[in-house]
UniProtKB/TrEMBL annotation:
Keywords: Amino-acid biosynthesis, Aromatic amino acid biosynthesis, Decarboxylase, Lyase, Tryptophan biosynthesis. Belongs to the TrpC family. InterPro entries: Aldolase_TIM, Indole-3-glycerol_P_synth, Indole-3-glycerol_P_synth_dom, RibuloseP-bd_barrel. Pfam families: IGPS. Pathway: Amino-acid biosynthesis; L-tryptophan biosynthesis; L-tryptophan from chorismate: step 4/5. GO terms for molecular function: indole-3-glycerol-phosphate synthase activity. Coiled coil: none annotated. Residues 4-252 form the Indole-3-glycerol phosphate synthase domain. This is Indole-3-glycerol phosphate synthase.
Length: 259
């Protein structure tokens, strides 16, 4: 069993447990439930930088990245830097995140927030909305076509945008549907952790122009972004590169200014 399979097994258990503790009615009573969401896809289309900056404390590929910042410091720093949106990791066991991180981010910034999570159930989409997210991530590697369709339709019914993550041609082909807003290509193989920008380059031409193209993982230089822009990418998700410094906001500011 690879790490992704393990995460999904744990996630399904976690969702069953959460459902037994917090009823849907409680999530729907959240002050954010009626809030109008902010469009990340619009921001990316109109941006010159396209940076989606990520709040991430640790990851399975790199045990600890940074625990020394508060969510408020990081997200405010990213907003001030001119990021188009912020990705907030909410998985606890493998990434050191939580839904409270999303809540704190929402209280701090007014740019789009992505709930970065391993979504396997509609309940998690209700959580995303209740805790202030503007969009969700769906990972093609762990979902069937029917699941992608029903989960993305449900997200859209709540006013949330959908970023679908793919890693290869097969995942992309099974996933293309009108209920997606953005298609992200993960440059990190989630099974082997190998990172290569070639994944983004190879799949770019197969992604229809109706979707905003996003390149994720392994982007650590201005050169990498300049290399990917001619392939039609409008969004670039960067986490570790900013978080591993002693001031994520400043790192993002310097990076975006150079762009």
């Amino acid at each position: 069993m690879n790490i992704l399979d393990k995460i999904i097994v744990d996630k399904k258990r976690e969702v069953i447990l959460k459902k037994s503790i917090i009823p849907v009615s409680q999530l729907e009573a959240s002050v954010f439930f009626e809030k109008k969401t902010i469009s990340l896809s619009d921001n990316l289309r109109n941006s010159t930088s396209g940076i989606i900056a990520e709040h991430k404390r640790r990851s399975p590929s790199r045990a600890e990245i940074n625990y020394s910042f508060t969510v408020e410091e990081v997200t405010k720093g990213y907003e001030n830097a001119g990021a188009c949106g912020i990705s907030v990791l909410t998985d606890g066991k493998y990434f050191g995140g939580s839904l409270d991180d999303l809540l704190l981010a929402r209280a701090t910034v007014s740019i789009p927030l992505l709930r970065k999570e391993f979504i396997v159930d509609e309940y998690q989409i209700l959580e995303a909305k209740a805790y202030g997210a503007d969009l969700i991530l769906l990972i093609a590697a762990v979902l069937t076509r029917d699941e992608i369709k029903s989960l993305s339709q449900f997200a859209k019914s709540l006013g949330l945008e959908v970023l679908l993550e793919v890693h290869n041609q097969e995942e992309l082909e099974k996933s293309i549907m009108p209920t997606l807003d953005m298609i992200g290509v993960n440059n990190r193989n989630l099974k082997t952790f190998e990172v290569s920008l070639d994944f983004s380059k190879q799949l770019a031409a197969q992604i229809p122009n109706d979707f905003v193209k996003v390149s994720e993982s392994g982007i650590s230089s201005i050169e990498a972004i300049n290399e990917l822009k001619p392939f039609g990418y409008k969004g670039f998700l960067i986490g570790e590169n900013f978080m591993k410094t002693n001031n994520a906001g400043k790192a993002a500011t310097d990076f975006i200014e150079k762009l």
